[in-house]
């Protein structure tokens, strides 16, 4: 089948071309960069909301983009089970649009933070983690000022297995030192009940080529590979 | 400040009496108030380079003498051809005065301005680098405030626009206490065609002039004249002259501009920075040999009631002027509509060579286009300061502490310690080009996707050395910056500079500038590296305390690495390797961090430069690279060789056993050997089995290559063979000191 993914360009998205590059040249799948007002869901098998500062993050990170017509289209995809992935600012948009529970607050340090971290896979049954093993530790970078995950329904998320990634140290221990932004329970990514919508603060598109990775790993690519695998199985 | 009268209005201008008379003579009338304002701006030091231009002529003509230089000095940015049909644009600029009184917006709009300069060349901005200078942080809340908000301003602006900040430099010295230096550099990448599409000139009559981006407001009026004066205790009142940045709009301008250029209908492009519309319109037409007629009523303004004086002089951020072919107007406007960017066709070019601006039916500006862009120069007096002889004669005191204690003090000192606190706040990876992580190399390295070619870039200088000897100090700065890219495996390709000096009307300050330019020009000619652009920031002087900054000619370099396998990094890789010191260590402690941190003294004998030796060292290193003989490489900089070695140990927790017996015969004292900042040296890790081969090559080039130690498993630096005593440094303790100084000062 000819799989086609849309990467949405909101005004001042800035990791859109990075995701596009990885899909087209590393994962080797057809992906289009689509201006947010021009996006039509019927043309695509999956959608990625990339990182950046949509609408300058003015008012609140992600909130203006959450009201873009692109999100009405994305909601149709969400509801019929196609994969919807939000990276960094995309995650903020997904919580603001209530595709995903919780909110992303200003980092505890009050500073933007750019560095490589370790994530533990808590749920490998989602559309984006099916090629990973539970409790795997992956290398991936973060770059955000508002990534502190907060929810008032933590128990519900745990019970429903909606926590997908947690920040850990190199050995996989969930510690406060390995929590880069003060997220509740070290949460780095969550999914919807059905597992076809994922939001995460770290950037898999920056961890998909060994040349960019301090340890030479390509763990981020597995997230995109899983997404493609999910699409293939879904249409089979 | 002189006053001019015009139709009943009185205006303060920053012009000399000669300039006022010349303007009246040339026009054969009294200018209108708006015209006076435009002259005031365009003849300011910042726009006209009236003091510096005679000296800048010392730099050779890069476009003429180097076939790969596509754009040289005088353009918005330098551009070089790096092969495979790629053009690389880069530039460095200062935003010192605004940052000194409003650090957050001052720094942010500095980033905004340098991004526009690169965009003007038709290419995508892909990286930022920021050399910063402040007063010392310890016990100084004012310096801490400036440092914190300058870094935040850069982070908030750069991160939002999606341009990674891949390098920089931070120096703390009391001479920068009232005049912090915020220099900003940007690199752009595109194809040769992208660059050729849109020059910053309007060469054709009857083209449309479009203004796109932010609205024109009352902010930033007279920013450049304010930057062309010394700061006074009244300068706080100048805060309205600082512009306010809007990184969201800037990001949209980048995308809309690049897409507009792709239509093929944009024939000229100019950003609105210092001097606003006055500067952009006069440079487009004056340098393009055309004229223009502009309708002020079409310019979208932020608040009602702005007069022509305010509109023409506004330095509101986030604006670009486009010169567009008549037949392409709709296509270009459609791009701006897609991005929902405010825009207006404000006039057309013509062949009159006159710049006319209409406010309704009133002709408020009617000037020959070149009247504003061709400013005469002013010769300045030079005088070597009398205090220099005493400074140069200062002798290093006998060490008051043990050498190991001094090294621990140095590694924790503000100028040597880790700058991780800064670069963690910058998104240094957006764009998926950054292949070297901050802290792993001497330079920032970017891949060019789709090729096996890499860009290496670094910025910096040594102001303490320049203060003692601006001629050799400026050369030394260039050697250090070239050393940064060479250590990573890159061939130096071209440089730009940003000259930060005191008041050019003071002969001592101007002497520093003149000597520094001469040093840089001589070095570049000798080493065959072109200077493709520059910026001069004068008046970095505090009128209250009458202190000028240390002379700071900041250099930015770009180099190219062909092939991923040829990237060299600084951390030691293996235990049991040889540690080599390349280049001669001389008793040059003048202006060293050792003198400054331990004895609080500025004088002594600073490093001298011998270009012939430097050239041989570089050739030797490239021959080692070609034969794959180098595992790690790091150029020796502030603090001397032990600091250099410690930085190589940290990442992989590999120690070193040093044997310095080889220096026992020489005349160097222990502190001179360890702390000298002699320029052009490198510390390398190489294989034991390659030792003979490397020493043979060193002999062939007749340069100093000395094995000084071996890498070891133990996390320590064992120092043997000194004249006084042997000792061992604990790496864990060094790393702790290295990492904690700035967080302790800033986050507690």
Summed up:
The complex is a heterodimer of chains A (236) and B (748). With 236 residues, chain A is α/β, with parallel strands linked by helices. Chain A has helices at 16-26, 69-79, 89-96, 154-159, 219-235; strands at residues 4-9, 30-35, 46-49, 84-87, 103-105, 113-121, 137-144, 148-150, 163-168, 187-191, 197-200.
Features of the shown structure:
heterodimer, A: 236 residues, Rossmann fold, nine-stranded mixed beta sheet, two-stranded antiparallel ribbon, B: 748 residues, alpha+beta, Phosphoribosyl-aminoimidazole Synthetase, Chain A, domain 2, 60s Ribosomal Protein L30, Chain: A, seven-stranded mixed beta sheet, 27 helices, 29 strands, 36% helix
Descriptive notes:
The complex is a heterodimer of chains A (236) and B (748). Chain A is α/β, with parallel strands linked by helices and 236 residues long. Chain A has a single domain, classed as Class I glutamine amidotransferase (GATase) domain (Rossmann fold). Helix content of chain A is 22%, strand content 25%. Chain A contains five helices and eleven strands; from the N terminus they run βαββαβαββββαβββα. Chain A has helices at residues 16-26, 69-79, 89-96, 154-159, 219-235, and strands at 4-9, 30-35, 46-49, 84-87, 103-105, 113-121, 137-144, 148-150, 163-168, 187-191, 197-200. Chain A has a nine-stranded mixed sheet with strand order 2-1-3-4-11-10-9-6-7, sandwiched between helices. A two-stranded antiparallel ribbon of chain A has the order 5-8. In chain A, strand 1 (4-9), helix 1 (16-26) and strand 2 (30-35) form a beta-alpha-beta unit. Chain A is globular. Chain A starts with a strand and ends with a helix. Chain B folds into three domains: 1-60 and 198-372, Phosphoribosyl-aminoimidazole Synthetase, Chain A, domain 2; 69-193 and 438-566, PurM-like, N-terminal domain (60s Ribosomal Protein L30, Chain: A, 2-Layer Sandwich); 388-431 and 570-748, Alpha-Beta Complex (Phosphoribosyl-aminoimidazole Synthetase, Chain A, domain 2). Helices cover 36% and strands 24% of the residues of chain B. In chain B, strand 20 and strand 21 (547-548) form a beta hairpin. The longest helix of chain B is centred in the first third of the chain and has 21 residues, at 141-161. Classes of the chains: A alpha/beta (236), B alpha+beta (748). Chain A binds chain B through residues 11-12, 14-15, 17-18, 21-22, 25, 35, 51-53, 55-58, 111-116, 141, 143, 145, 203, 205-206, 209, 211-212, 214, and chain B through 152, 155-156, 159-162, 246-249, 251-252, 338-340, 423-432, 434-435, 437, 440, 447, 449, 564.
């Amino acid at each position: 089948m000819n799989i086609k993914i849309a990467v949405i360009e909101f005004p001042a998205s800035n990791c859109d071309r990075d995701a596009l590059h990885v899909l087209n040249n590393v994962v080797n799948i057809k992906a289009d960069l689509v201006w947010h007002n021009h996006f039509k869901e019927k043309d695509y098998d999956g959608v990625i909301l990339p990182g950046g500062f949509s609408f300058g993050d003015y008012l609140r990170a992600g909130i203006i983009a959450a009201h873009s017509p692109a999100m009405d289209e994305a909601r149709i995809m969400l509801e019929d089970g196609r994969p919807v992935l939000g990276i960094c600012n995309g995650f903020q948009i997904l919580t603001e649009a209530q595709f995903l529970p919780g909110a992303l607050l200003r980092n505890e340090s009050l500073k933007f933070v750019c560095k490589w971290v370790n994530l533990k896979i808590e749920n490998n049954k989602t559309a984006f983690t099916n090629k990973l093993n539970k409790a795997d530790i992956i290398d991936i970078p973060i770059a955000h000022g508002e990534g502190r995950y907060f929810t008032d329904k933590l128990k519900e998320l745990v019970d429903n297995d909606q926590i997908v990634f947690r920040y850990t140290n190199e050995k996989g221990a969930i510690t406060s030192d390995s929590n880069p932004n003060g997220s509740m329970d070290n949460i780095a990514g969550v999914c919807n009940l059905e597992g076809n919508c994922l939001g995460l603060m770290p950037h898999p598109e920056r961890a998909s080529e060994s040349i960019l990775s301090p340890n030479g790993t390509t763990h981020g690519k597995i997230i995109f590979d899983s997404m493609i695998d999910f699409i293939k199985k879904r249409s089979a | 400040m002189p006053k001019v009268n015009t139709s009943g209005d009185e205006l303060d201008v920053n012009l000399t009496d000669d300039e006022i008379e010349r303007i009246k003579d040339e026009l054969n009338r009294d200018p209108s108030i708006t015209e006076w304002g435009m002259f005031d701006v365009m003849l300011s030091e910042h726009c006209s380079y009236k003091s510096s231009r005679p000296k800048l002529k010392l730099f050779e003509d890069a476009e003429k003498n180097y076939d790969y230089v596509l754009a040289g000095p005088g353009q918005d940015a330098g551009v070089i051809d790096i092969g495979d049909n790629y053009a690389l644009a880069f530039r460095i600029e200062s935003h010192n005065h605004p940052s000194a009184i409003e650090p957050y917006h001052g720094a942010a709009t500095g980033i905004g301005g340098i991004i526009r300069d690169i965009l003007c060349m038709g290419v995508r901005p892909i990286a930022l680098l920021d050399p910063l200078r402040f007063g010392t942080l310890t016990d100084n809340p004012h310096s801490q405030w400036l440092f914190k908000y300058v870094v935040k301003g850069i982070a908030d602006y750069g991160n939002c626009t999606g341009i990674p900040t891949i390098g920089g430099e931070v120096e703390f010295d009391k001479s920068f206490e009232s005049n912090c230096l915020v220099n900003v550099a940007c690199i752009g990448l595109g194809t040769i065609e992208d660059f050729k599409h849109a020059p910053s000139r309007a060469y054709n009559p009857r083209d449309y002039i479009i203004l796109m981006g932010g609205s024109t407001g009352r902010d930033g009026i007279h920013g450049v004249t304010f930057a062309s004066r010394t700061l006074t205790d009244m300068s706080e009142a100048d805060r309205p002259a600082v512009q306010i940045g809007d990184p969201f709009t800037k990001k949209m301008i980048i995308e809309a501009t690049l897409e507009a250029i792709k239509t093929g209908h944009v024939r000229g492009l100019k950003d609105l920075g210092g001097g606003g519309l006055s500067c952009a319109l006069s440079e487009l037409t004056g340098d393009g040999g055309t004229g223009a007629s502009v309708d002020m009523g079409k310019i979208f303004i932020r608040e009602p009631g702005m007069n022509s004086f305010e509109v023409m002089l506004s330095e509101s951020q986030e604006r670009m002027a486009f010169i567009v072919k008549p037949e392409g107007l709709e296509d270009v406007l459609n791009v701006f509509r897609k991005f929902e960017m405010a825009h207006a066709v404000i006039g057309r070019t013509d062949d009159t060579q006159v710049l006319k601006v209409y406010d309704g039916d009133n002709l408020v500006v009617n000037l020959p286009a070149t009247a504003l862009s061709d400013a005469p120069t002013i010769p300045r007096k030079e005088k070597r300061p009398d205090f220099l002889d005493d400074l140069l004669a200062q002798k290093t005191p006998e060490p008051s502490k043990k050498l190991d204690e001094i090294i621990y003090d140095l590694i924790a000192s503000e100028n040597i310690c880790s700058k991780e606190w800064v670069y963690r706040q910058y998104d240094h990876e957006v764009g998926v080009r950054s292949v070297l992580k901050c802290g792993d190399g001497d330079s920032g390295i970017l891949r060019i996707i789709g090729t096996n070619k890499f860009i290496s870039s670094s910025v910096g200088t040594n102001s303490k050395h320049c203060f003692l000897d601006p001629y050799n100090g400026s050369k030394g700065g260039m050697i250090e910056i070239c050393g940064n890219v060479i250590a990573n495996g890159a061939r130096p390709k071209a440089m730009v500079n940003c000259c930060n000096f005191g008041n050019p009307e003071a002969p001592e300050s101007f002497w520093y500038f003149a000597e520094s330019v001469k040093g840089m020009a001589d070095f570049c000619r000798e080493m065959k590296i072109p200077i493709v652009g520059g910026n001069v920031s004068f008046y970095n002087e505090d009128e209250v305390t009458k202190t000028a900054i240390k002379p700071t000619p900041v250099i930015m370099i770009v180099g190219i690495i062909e092939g991923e396998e040829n990237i060299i990094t600084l951390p030691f890789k293996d235990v049991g390797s040889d540690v080599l010191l390349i280049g001669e260590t001389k008793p040059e402690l003048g202006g060293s961090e050792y003198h400054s941190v331990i004895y609080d003294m500025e004088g002594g004998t600073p490093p001298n430069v011998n270009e012939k030796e430097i050239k041989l060292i570089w050739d030797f290193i490239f021959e080692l690279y070609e034969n794959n003989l180098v595992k790690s490489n790091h150029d020796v900089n502030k603090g001397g060789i032990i600091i250099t070695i410690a930085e190589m140990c940290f990442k992989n927790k590999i120690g070193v056993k040093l044997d310095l017996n080889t220096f026992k015969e020489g005349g160097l004292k222990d502190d001179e050997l360890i702390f000298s900042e002699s320029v052009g040296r490198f510390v390398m890790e190489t294989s034991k089995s390659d030792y003979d081969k490397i020493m043979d090559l060193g002999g062939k080039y007749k340069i100093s290559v000395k094995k000084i130690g071996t890498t070891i498993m133990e996390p320590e630096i064992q120092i043997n063979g000194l004249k006084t005593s042997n000792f061992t440094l604990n790496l864990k303790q060094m790393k702790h000191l290295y990492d904690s100084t700035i967080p302790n000062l800033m986050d507690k």
